[in-house]
Amino acid sequence: MAEREQDTDLRSRLVDAGVELVDEQGVGALSLREIARRAGVSHGAPRRYFPTHLSLLSAIARRGFEGLAAQAGAAVATHEGEPREQLTALAHSWLDFALTNRGMFELMFRHDLLESNHLGLRETSLPLFATLVDLVARARPDSGAEPRIVAGALWANLHGIAQLWGWGSLQLAVGVDGPRPLLRAALDAHLGPEVR
Amino acid sequence: MAEREQDTDLRSRLVDAGVELVDEQGVGALSLREIARRAGVSHGAPRRYFPTHLSLLSAIARRGFEGLAAQAGAAVATHEGEPREQLTALAHSWLDFALTNRGMFELMFRHDLLESNHLGLRETSLPLFATLVDLVARARPDSGAEPRIVAGALWANLHGIAQLWGWGSLQLAVGVDGPRPLLRAALDAHLGPEVR
DNA sequence: AGACGTCCGTAGACACTGTCTACGATGCAT
DNA sequence: ATGCATCGTAGACAGTGTCTACGGACGTCT
């Protein structure tokens, strides 16, 4: 009859509550006091573990980064040895994450709500970008372009599609039924047309 | 000795104050009361013209969209008849706007702060996208790809570069001195390598 | 066993926010 | 001059993040 997750430490309970909350009601619902209420404690309690509102939000966002990194890593692992396939799998995984966990994805890139130092950007985003560079280098070894540049542009493209599609700017203008054609166009553009 | 813009109507004075404010102090400073203070009126005054905080922010953002559209239009007009040049000019203009007016640019795409219907999205963003589609179609007439798709992907790419570069995620990972190489890579990718 | 000290959460205050409502003041039309 | 509509003021209300003082529970040492 013990109330759920009542006996674990408050620190992770708060983050759990925040993850649920952003999932159900979006970024706007992530007030410090609402998270505390959700966790069943008073509004001053979080201060013991998170000195500021932003630090709590950063911890919540970190969960998102970890989830995304795991999901993307799994997608890359399924097509070992085929860089091009790995890249498309990575891209699709990223987009799926953005469209499935909308609130969390928005939070993760609302850098005005995050402590850009403490957050899991260095620890999760950078290695992920490193593998992206590596995959790009192996997917098009003949090209003279610098892989870092291509990877950066591709990353921005991917992010832009996820973002713009997420809030409806693209389906209005482009008029397709899903973001997949855009993703394919971006991949073809940055990696060269697919060989088959 | 008349205080500057004291005699114009309050409606536009409020928007002016907001534009200045977001320029100087960023999106976070755009509270209703602070804008009212800046315009020299009480905190209840804006309600006469803007029923809600979001509607005022939307009016401010509209100024940004108008400015961006004007700037981009001018850039396109300088290279009439050369679609490829027009596209690169458009892209550079867009990026310049994003990096010069950082606060405004952030506001313009914070759709949680904007009334997505009333705002100048339909009136400014859509025609701009239409010219983008047109330019893409003329810049690569031989390609079999649908111009709308290519234009959508390119626009997402452009937006992604502006956004990611704006908050420093890219220069950290890619390690170049400016966003220009990324822009060039994106244009080359989506439009095919430049002929010279 | 008793006293002490540290940890952890509560509760209240403060300044600030957006929204709403009641109230004047101003100027124009009849 | 009288009425009226327009416009801005001022106060209240619920909500927010941060800060500080307080209480209670726990373990350790003498």
From TrEMBL, chains A, B:
InterPro entries attached to this UniProt entry: Homeodomain-like_sf, HTH-type_TetR-like_transc_reg, HTH_TetR, MT1864/Rv1816-like_C, Tet_transcr_reg_TetR-rel_C_sf
Cytoplasm found in the keyword field: no
UniProt entry tagged with the keyword Transcription: yes
Keywords: DNA-binding, Transcription, Transcription regulation
SUPFAM superfamilies: Homeodomain-like, Tetracyclin repressor-like, C-terminal domain
DNA-binding region(s), chain positions: 31-50
Gene Ontology MF: a single term: transcription cis-regulatory region binding
Domain HTH tetR-type: from-to ranges: 8-68
Domain of life: Bacteria
Protein name: TetR family transcriptional regulator
Organism: Streptomyces antioxidans
